[in-house]
Amino acid sequence: MTTSIIGLFDSSDLADKVRGELVKAGVKKNSVSVFTDQAGSTLVGELVERGYQEDRARQYAEAVKKGGIVIAAEADDTQADQAVAVMNRFDLKTPEELIERAGQSRGEQTETAQAVEETVRVGKEQVTGGKRLVTNVTEREVEKPVTLREETVEVERQHDDRRLSPDEANKAFEEKTVEMTTTSERPVVSKEARVTEEVALRKQAGERQETVRETVRRSDVEVETISQPAKGGKGKPS
């Protein structure tokens, strides 16, 4: 949030010094404006835009015509208090004081007090946010039962004691090979990737209204009459 701080001074040297101190305090140089009698009627519109009532803005413009110089600074919340403190270190003037002093003759003694008022200007800044899609790959073991067919060959031996004929004996002593093959199954694993969900990001633009609340300070100058008791008795306030 941006706050506008206004100060009125009676000399250009003092105004330049204030502007330099504001920049040293962290206020951006291009956020500090100096208005002299050359500002003319544009000063009224400028102060109204910064939050001042038009009557009060015209008083400042009249004071500038009488030789005053207005310093206007824009500062964020972290710098506003420091900017006010910087201006308060110098001889701030009120519009009434400069207007009255312009009509007075030189040599008169004047004691002054400053009235300072803060105004609030609400600005906007862009904040980056959003959502991000992140894909994470995890692994897990899967068990599935499978039935496998398997053939085996068993060897059987039988004891036999019988006589062979000459032809059977000739055939029995011939060399030969007898074999029996078996067939068995083994598991074969294959994997297939399937899409289970699709997540999309979609951006929509809209507007919303928000009420900003901020506390501003103002100091007023009150005039009190100082009375002294009369000699020989108690005095009454005049």
Q: By helix and strand content, what is the structural category?
A: alpha+beta
Rg from C-alpha positions?
Answer: 50 Å
Stretches where pLDDT is under 50 for at least 5 consecutive residues are 234-238
Outline? rod-shaped
- State the distance separating the first and last CA atoms: 48 Å
Mean pLDDT metric: 84
Could you please describe the fold and organization of this structure?
The protein is α+β, with helices and mostly antiparallel strands and 238 residues long. It has a domain at 2-121: Alpha-Beta Plaits (2-Layer Sandwich), CATH 3.30.70. Helices cover 25% and strands 10% of the residues. It has a four-stranded antiparallel β-sheet with strand order 2-3-1-4, with helices on both faces. Helix 2 (42-49) crosses helix 3 and helix 3 (54-65) packs across helix 5 (95-102). The chain starts with a strand and ends in a 66-residue tail after the last helix.
Topology:
Blueprint: E1 2-9, H1 12-24, E2 32-35, H2 42-49, H3 54-65, E3 69-76, H4 77-88, H5 95-102, E4 118-121, H6 166-172
Antiparallel strand pairs: 1-3, 1-4, 2-3
